[in-house]
Every structure is written in structure tokens, then in C-alpha cells.
Amino acid sequence: MARTCTFKGNPLPLEGPALKPGDKAPDVKLSKSLAETVALSATAGKVRILSVVPSLDTPVCALQTKRFNEEAARLPNVVIYTISCDLPTAQARFCGAEGIDPDRLHVLSDHKEAAFGRAYGTLIPPLRLLCRAVFVLDAGGTIRYAEYVPEIADHPNYDAVLNCVKQLAK
Prior knowledge:
Blueprint: E1 4-7, E2 10-13, E3 29-31, E4 37-39, E5 47-52, H1 59-74, E6 78-84, H2 88-98, E7 105-109, H3 115-120, E8 123-124, E9 129-130, E10 133-137, E11 143-148, H4 158-168
Parallel strand pairs: 5-6, 6-7
Antiparallel strand pairs: 1-2, 3-4, 5-10, 8-9, 10-11
């Protein structure tokens, strides 16, 4: 059966695997700017949160990103990424307008090839957006928490994400 998420109850197809805890996290390159790419493996050896959003220019995505930016201040040894298919220039504008600290929360774009979306099973092909999801990776690059939020307009389970991170950071 094909994997889906919903947007206001309407089903949307997802491309890629349904990753789960225990799976090795795929290493992909994402755009940090229009000219610079970054591999997720660049921060290997640290606990990482991958906060995946459809578009920073929507209310729930903005709130999710701001929430993880706030949490980053309390999680000094954890690397937090927000990943979307927004252009890097749009991401930079959003971060500047919302006071997102680029040293605390790293915003990366999957706009060029949607390689992250395909590798992590978050790509919505007809919209060329990513579904809402959160992954927690341990220092060895193994997924310890994976949440594909069924309804795009809903928030992820922040408490479950943070509890997982706190367990790993001990």
C-alpha cells in the first residue's frame, strides 16, 4: 500500500522509505545557501534533531521552527536542523525576520534534488514539498526517534522528541 499523509484531510502520496528507530540515517547533501551544500554527516558524532517542514512561510512550520530554536538554547550538545524545500534565500529571510539563531538552529534546503525527501520518505511529489516529520539521530548516526506527522497541519510530538534527545544526551 502506498504511503500517504494528509493536508486538511486530503491524502497526499509520499515517496521513499518509512524510516524507523534502529535504521541507519541516510547521509544526504542539502543546500545551506544557493552556492554551498552541507552533508548531514558533517555533524556526525553528535546527537541531531532533523525537524522537517513543508514550508517556513506557513504558520505551523514557523511555530515548529521557532520551538526548536528555543529548545536549542537548552540543548547545547545537540545539533538541530530544520529542513524544507524552500529556497535558501527564503529560508534566510525567514530566519532573519523571526530571530532564528543560525549558530543554534541550522536551516537547510532540499530544493535542488529533493534527495533528503526521497531518502527519508518525506517527499510529496505532486507538491514538491516535504511532509512534516522529526527524526532524532544518535551520535553514531542511527535513528532513535522517527515521527511522520499524519496530518501536515498538525504539530509533531515535541515532548517525545525532547525526551528521546535527553535520554541520548546523558
